Amino acid sequence: MKTMKKRNNIILIGFMGIGKGTIARALYKEIGLFPLDSDDLIESAYNSKIKEIFAKRGEDEFRKTEKKLAKFIEKNVNNAIISTGGGFYKVPNLKKLGTIIYLKSDFEGIINRIKNSPNATKKLAKRPLLKDLKEAKKLFEKREDEYEKVADFIVDVSDKTPKQITKEIKKLLQKDNK
After folding, report:
1. How far apart are CA 79 and CA 70, in angstroms?
2. For residue 172, is pLDDT > 50?
């Protein structure tokens, strides 16, 4: 049986709006691994915003691009913190990309986090799957168990500051490296 080689990356997964990018930037300040954002990389490749890619090319095209990006990360990226889009966890080679940390909260906590952020309107507008909150909640409920199944670690981010979350992740990683 061929052993799977895992990259030395931290992969942050979780529902859209949970704060993966914020936590990646906070971790960078603490541990020095460079933060990358999968959605930003895809936007750069298309020279378009995510909502425009969804509108013009559809979700299927977007998901195909996520798979291409995951292959690129597997071959070329090491020692990075990668914040991912909400559906990135489905890429087939996820486990090879690094240590997977699921940032967990309930749906209401995520929506409140977005609504209470300084640029809430912009944050809601850039997430096409949050247009209909009823449908978004169904998607959240479907994904919740799936995130847990693929995660190496689960960090509950409810009512915690980025500093508290970062501290918790650092502890988990230190234990894992012993």
Report:
1. 15
2. yes
3-state helix, strand, coil in the chain (%, to 5): 60, 10, 30
d(C-alpha 45, C-alpha 100), whole Å? 24
Return the higher-pLDDT residue of 172 and 127: 172
The two tokens of residue 73 are 């990360």
CB contact at 8 A, 82 and 11: yes
CA distance 178 to 174: 7
Ramachandran class of 2: left when φ > 0, alpha when ψ lies in -120 to 50, beta otherwise: beta
* pLDDT, tens digit (0-9, with 9 covering 90-100), for 34-89: 999 999 999 999 999 888 898 899 889 999 999 999 999 999 999 999 999 989 99
Packing angle of the helix pair 20-31, 162-176 (nearest 10 deg): 60
The H-or-E segment that residue 35 falls in is: strand 34-37
Task: Report the alpha-carbon distance of residue 7 to residue 66 in Å, rounded.
Answer: 17
- Considering only CA atoms, which of 144, 131, 142, 138 is closest in space to residue 18? 144
pLDDT at 112: 83
Alpha helices in 77-132 (DSSP H): 94-97, 107-115, 120-125
